[in-house]
Amino acid sequence: MQMANNQLLDSYYDDLQALQAIDFSLVELTLYLDTHPDDLEAIKQFNSTAQKSAELTTAFENQYGPLRQFGHSYSSHPWQWSKSPWPWQV
Questions:
Q1: What are the distances in angstroms from CA 70 to CA 45, 60, 74, 79?
Q2: C-beta of residue 74 within 8 angstroms of C-beta of residue 81
Q3: How many Å apart are CA 53 and CA 64, to the nearest integer?
Q4: Most exposed among 6, 7, 26, 66, judged by the fewest C-beta atoms under 10 Å?
Q5: Whole-angstrom Cα distance, residue 63 to residue 2?
């Protein structure tokens, strides 16, 4: 992870916020689609947003390290999960 003076770079927070915003949109679309399962435009928007989330997640992990646990994120050597801060700590 890139750091300046033992501080996370602003880009870390910006990238994490962008990812959180897109994932929030996915939660909202999921809730909407639970009650409107036939809304084709919402399904298209969900699929497009899910793709964008996957792209942002991959880019974030390539830049800063693993983001998701339980085998959804890969680790390089040495084991990256022991490095902090973890996304939920910032």
A1: 27, 17, 10, 14
A2: no
A3: 16
A4: 6
A5: 8
Residue 38 lies in a domain: yes
Question: pLDDT per residue over 15-45, tens digit each?
Answer: 999 999 999 999 999 999 999 999 999 999 9
Q: What is the pLDDT of residue 69?
A: 72
Its domain, for residue 57, covers 9-64+77-89
CA gap 82, 50 in Å, rounded: 28
Distances (CA, A) of 15 to 5, 9, 35, 38, 80: 19, 10, 31, 33, 19
Q: For residue 88, which amino acid is it? A: W
Q: Is the pLDDT of residue 73 over 80?
A: no
Q: Indicate the pTM of the whole model.
A: 0.73
